[in-house]
Write a structure and sequence with these properties.
Elements: H1 11-24, H2 37-44, H3 48-61, E1 64-67, E2 71-74, H4 96-117, H5 120-138, H6 144-157, H7 161-172, H8 177-186, H9 189-207, H10 211-229
Antiparallel strand pairs: 1-2
Helix pairs in contact: 1-3, 2-3, 3-8, 4-6, 4-9, 4-10, 5-6, 5-9, 6-7, 9-10
Length: 239
């Protein structure tokens, strides 16, 4: 069964479904190492981030196994956790790297608005969330809650309730299994420290009322976050 080109707008679920069918047909048998991400993207006619999201989804289902430094292998699924139906469009089902791209567009402007509109109470809430992140990192923990509180405080300060609700929905995606598994592979204490420093620059620009600076700092942070999630599997921490 030859690999077929994917329509770009279908994203990771169609890719995952085709790979699953190839496994079921014996094209990729149990124990076989899958082609590299770059090769799969080329053959499928899609971006590497979309392939990565599909592979993460298949790993969550239990039909592939990522072996750090070796590759991605087909495994015999035990208790399969199938993807939601194609009609599902809840935040938890959104592709993680696609969410990151959306955040870059939306949250950069939210930060710019926050720098223009934030009051003293907003500055206090943003700084308190950053301090929470700092404490979580110092304790060797994923700064999950401080991170979300930081971005929500900025959205609250921007003065637009629709944008606040949009940012909250984007963050709901972090509770989904795909985002959680991606974080397992690519988040580590070094990435937490880098993110903390990036957040500090956003906070400082907002406190200074520097709208262009806040936009630029948020763009830099989210680009770096996307870059960290797009790193080579070989650089991902072993489990």
């Amino acid at each position: 069964m030859p690999i077929q080109a994917i329509e770009p707008q279908r994203l990771y679920r169609q890719i995952a479904e085709q790979l699953r069918q190839l496994m079921a047909s014996g094209e990729f048998s149990v124990g076989t190492r899958l082609p590299a991400e770059r090769e799969l993207a080329s053959q499928l006619g899609v971006s590497r981030p979309s392939v990565r999201e599909a592979l993460i989804a298949l790993e969550v289902e239990g039909v592939i196994e990522v072996r750090t430094g070796s590759g991605i292998y087909v495994r015999q699924p035990s208790e399969s956790q199938p993807l939601p139906s194609q009609s599902s469009n809840t935040p938890a089902d959104w592709g993680p790297l696609e969410v990151m791209s959306a955040r870059l567009v939306i949250e950069a402007e939210v930060a710019a608005l926050a720098a223009r509109n934030a009051g003293k109470a907003d500055h206090k809430a943003i700084r308190a969330a950053w301090q929470q992140m700092k404490q979580e990192v110092a304790a060797g923990q994923v700064p999950r809650w401080g991170d979300e509180a930081f971005h929500e405080a900025i959205a609250s300060a921007c003065g637009n309730s629709v944008l606040l609700d949009t940012v909250r929905r984007l963050w709901q995606a972090r509770n989904g299994p795909l985002f959680e598994r991606l974080g397992d592979h690519f988040e580590n204490p070094g990435s937490w420290i880098a993110a903390l420093q990036e957040h500090a620059l956003v906070m400082q620009a907002i406190e200074a009322g520097d709208s262009p600076g806040a936009r630029k700092a948020m763009q830099k942070h989210l680009r770096q976050a996307h870059k960290r999630y797009s790193a080579s599997w070989r650089r991902a921490p072993a489990h």
